[in-house]
Amino acid sequence: MKFNNKVLFFILCIFALVFIAGGCSPSSSQPAAAEQVIRYNIGAEPATLDPALSTGMTEQTVANALLEGLVRLDKDGLPSPGVAESWETSPDCRTYTFNLRECYWSNGELLTADDFVYSWLRLLSPETASPYAYQLFYLVNGQEYNSGEVKDPASVGVRAEGKDRLVVTLKDPVPYFLSLTAFPALFPVPESAVSEDPDGWTLTPAGFTGNGPFKLASWEHNKQIVLEKNDRYWDRENVKLEKLVITLVADSNTELAMFENGQIDIAETPPYREMERLAESGELKVSPDLSNEYYMFNTKVKPFDQVLVRRALSLAIDRESLVTNLTKSGERAAYAFVPPGVEGPAPDQDFRSLGERLTGGFNPGEARKLLAEAGFPEGRGFPVIQLLLDDNQNHKAVAEAITGMWQEHLGIQSKIIEQEYRVYLSTMFAKDYQVARVGWIADYNDPMTFLDMWVTGNDNNLADWENAEYDRLIGAAAGEVDRAVRNGLMFEAERILMDQLPVVPVYYYTNPYLERDTVKGVIHPSFAIFAEFKWAYVE
Fold first, then answer.
1. Helical H runs in 285-386?
2. Beta bridge partners of 441
3. Is the pLDDT at 287 greater than 90, yes or no?
4. Any idea what DSSP says for residue 199?
5. 3-class DSSP state for residue 20?
6. Predicted confidence (pLDDT) per residue in 4-19, tens digit
7. Strand, helix or coil for residue 471
8. What are the b/e assignments for 200-228, b being 16+ CB within 10 Å?
9. Neighbours of 331 (CB within 10 A)
10. Long-range contact pairs involving 232-237 (C-beta distance under 8 Å, separation at least 24)
11. What's the mean per-residue pLDDT of the chain?
12. Helix or strand or coil: residue 344?
């Protein structure tokens, strides 16, 4: 409804007279402003808050609140100015020049271009042993510096021109490079804090120095992390939230009870068994996700070194039953590795338009035939599968369903090994497992984020799989400028991945969560992190 201006003016005058005559104060006539505190359960304790060493969504979500890269992704997942207030790209798209704004670390020190040079070289350094070092292999001499072939850091394609200009030189054009600079692994870290305590600088408020919208106020390990607004953040005027209390409860049933009892405002992982009830009540919110659930084989461990075994186990999984009868949050059965929605060969096409099904669906008869060919007729002689997963009830529910299918259709028994999140990650990175349940969410919106990690020797290739033709195709795609040709190369590589099945896709995720109606401005991105709190507030 639109008020007439004269009538509105008259009403305002009368109100002003009454207000003055009554001697009322604003505090007695207006409702109290909402306390700007959000209580958010993220799940398991983060393994680390060092962006160079983090691998999981838990770590990266917290790091995204405490630190900021050259750009920050907006509500549409597009790069917006972060530490860099502007940038230019050379005509050949190989050189980026970032113009840094005046901004400060939370300890009051000026953040400079040299901080990015230090942080990116640290990410690449073999001494750091970062699982995400390969994200900077796009830089001139980035991979060579990581391998030790190149010793001189000045020869790597990142340099400072004064305090406020960062120049980045790529080997080849990378269409998603700007978005990649918003990924936590590429965040700046303070050299002084890291040098003083390399192993513990992120563990306490006294040691942690950041440049993001929030600062670390406290960390009660395995209980909660408290973040407070960073008054030295360059865009602090647009940060409304005063405090973010992050609880560390891995049990999804406990998390749900906390939400329903008013102890938290956002529940990140509602239990599968409650999805229907929560959806019917209108409490369940679901956002899209560029991610997948998959089972990974250690290809150096018998009998999982046999492709026939891996194919048999894949064909014995009834994916449609899982998403219809168990997960119930809009997930889709996966018959390829890259999920729908990832950018593809043309602006109006996603990658899956090139082909939906690259691996076979539920076919227990064919699975038994392949298992027999591998030397295990009716499952006889097959060892008990040791299935590794983290201590998440939803992951366990899926694991129980899948191992039940393997027992029913192949005669194979399994033992589920649950480990606390940090221990689970360590076990996988040590490659001390047979089969592991894993989830992967895109680091950026491009098929490469799901494919380049399976190249021989990649630190995230925890299947320890090797395939020379796959490596060649991914290498060719990395240097290809033509979008359609590049996507075609990646699709052919994915065909090989799904033929050899070092990883078996199970379903494509959605992002179901619970959030109070008074919570506003939280972004639930489809990739990289669970939630973005910079623009969050309480109404």
1. 307-315, 319-322, 364-373
2. 291
3. yes
4. T
5. helix
6. 333 333 333 333 333 3
7. helix
8. ebbbeeeebbbbbbbbbeebeeeebbbbb
9. 24
10. 232/104, 232/105, 232/106, 232/108, 233/68, 233/103, 234/83, 234/101, 234/102, 234/103, 234/104, 235/534
11. 93
12. coil
Q: Return d(Cα 524, Cα 514) in angstroms, integer.
A: 11
CB–CB of 46/59 below 8 Å?
yes
Cβ burial, residue 411 (10 Å; 0-12/13-18/19+): middle
Please count the other Cβ atoms lying within 10 Å of the Cβ belonging to residue 335.
18
Distance CA 81, CA 182 (A): 10
Indicate whether 93 pLDDT > 90: yes
Token reading at 399: 């694991």
pLDDT given at position 528: 84
Do 134 and 185 contact (CB within 8 A), yes or no? Answer: no
Domains of the chain: 5-34 (no CATH), 38-241+516-538 (3.90.76.10), 289-511 (3.10.105.10)
Question: For the chain, how long is the longest CA-to-CA vector?
Answer: 94
Output b/e per residue, 279-307; b: 16+ Cβ within 10 A.
Answer: beeebbeeebbbbbbbbbbbbebebbebb
Q: Which helix (H) or strand (E) holds 114?
A: helix 113-124
Contacts 24+ apart (CB under 8 A), 276-280: 276/328, 278/514, 279/328, 279/329
Could you tell me the pTM of the whole model? 0.88
What is the three-class DSSP state of 371? helix
Containing H/E element for 196?
Answer: helix 191-196
Residue 469 has a CB neighbour count (10 Å cut-off) of 10
Phi/psi of residue 69, nearest 5 degrees? -90, -165
CB 245 within 8 A of CB 258: no
β-strands 165-169, 224-229 pairing: unpaired
Question: What ranges in 390-482 are assigned the alpha helix state H?
Answer: 393-410, 421-429, 448-451, 468-478
Q: What is the C-alpha separation between 210 and 215, in angstroms, rounded?
A: 7
Query: pLDDT tens digit string along 220-229?
Result: 999 999 999 9
Helices 307-315 and 364-373, axial angle in degrees (round to 10): 160
User: Does position 185 have pLDDT exceeding 50, yes or no?
Assistant: yes
